[in-house]
Design brief:
Length: about 325
């Protein structure tokens, strides 16, 4: 029996105890784009923080070889494979590897855990994430095993297509694709979706990353340019709240159009100089009042992700009046 339950605006616990059952309505989310500089890692970090602020137990898995997410959230880690307890020889190889990985997870913020890329590489004989991804179903099954303990898993991926993307997408419920107003960014997103269609039928949520809203003229032009790129219309859920609009992109293969539902988030993520400077202090946008408007955008994005993910989840059996519904500013 499933033991977790998410209400419309918050993650909560119901009766039961953790076991080897995936939490009800939990989501595995891959963040990806094949163009650098669109804010992929920043989005992965801050949306993970946003989920933790919504009382969701969240795990961020850093699969980008550059390790920026790991460094920003945890700095130089002292944990290493030498500190791992001996594995139970009666367990399967996958169970042993999962145990080793769980021992390397660290809590980096309240409600937010991190599996650093450095720890993963230390557990692979040749230190290559590509090798892990190419080794059958090991990486997808590892991700699913880790999902038993969390409400959400966010995965940061490399900026160039690799077997890592195929492995993570096969285990994911949703791909979040950040895009800036440039044509190169949109083309990279289209390329990613075309490649992704070979390994997944998960939905995709496009997220606009824009320049600082102080640059009003540029921001307005950028927003108009992106909106002209997509065709679609908004809809509402059963509570009358807007759901991210379903969109189409020129250049997608028929396989993508037939197999992957693509949505455009209402939330636009602004990128400011202050937010950039915070990375040098190893802080997120939730840890500085001057960028509270950006933090609010990430909270809205977390809500958008939940709405899109819920479209593809089975209806919960609990009556609506028994659900805990908390409103957040």
């Amino acid at each position: 029996m499933r033991f977790g339950h998410r209400a419309s605006s918050v993650c909560i616990w119901t009766h039961g105890s953790p076991g080897n059952t995936k939490k009800e309505n939990m989501s595995i989310i891959t963040v990806a784009n094949l163009k650098g500089g669109v804010g992929k890692t920043s989005l992965a970090i801050n949306v993970a923080c946003a989920f933790s602020k919504r009382f969701c137990e969240t795990l961020l898995i850093d699969l980008d070889g550059q390790g920026d997410a790991s460094y920003l959230l945890a700095g130089h880690l002292n944990k290493s494979s030498s500190a791992i307890r001996p594995a139970n020889p009666s367990h399967s190889l996958l169970e042993r590897f999962s145990t080793l990985c769980k021992d390397q997870i660290v809590e980096v913020r309240p409600g937010l855990d991190l599996l650093p890329v450095t720890a993963l590489r230390d557990l692979i004989p040749d230190g290559s994430l590509q090798t892990l991804a190419e080794h059958g179903e090991v990486l997808p099954r590892l991700i699913r095993n880790l999902s038993y303990d969390y409400d959400n898993i966010i995965i940061d991926t490399p900026p160039a297509w690799s077997a890592v993307h195929g492995a993570t997408l096969s285990a994911s419920d949703l791909a979040v694709v950040p895009i800036d107003p440039s044509e190169m960014s949109v083309r990279a997103a289209i390329s990613f979706l075309n490649k992704a269609s070979d390994t997944t039928t998960a939905s995709a949520l496009l997220v606009r990353t824009l320049v600082s809203r102080q640059a009003r003229s540029i921001t307005r032009q950028a927003k108009q340019k992106l909106e002209q790129t997509f065709l679609g219309q908004s809809s509402e859920d059963h509570l009358g709240e807007k759901i991210p609009q379903r969109v189409r992109l020129k250049g997608l293969t028929s396989q993508v159009e037939d197999g992957i539902e693509i949505y455009l988030s209402h939330a636009a993520i602004f990128r400011s100089e202050i937010a950039h400077k915070l990375t040098y202090e190893k802080k997120t946008v939730f840890e500085h009042k001057a960028v509270s408007h950006i933090a609010e955008s990430y909270m809205q994005l977390a809500s958008n992700i939940e709405k899109v993910a819920a479209l593809h989840q089975p209806e919960t059996l609990e009556p609506l009046e028994d659900m805990l519904d908390l409103a957040f500013a």
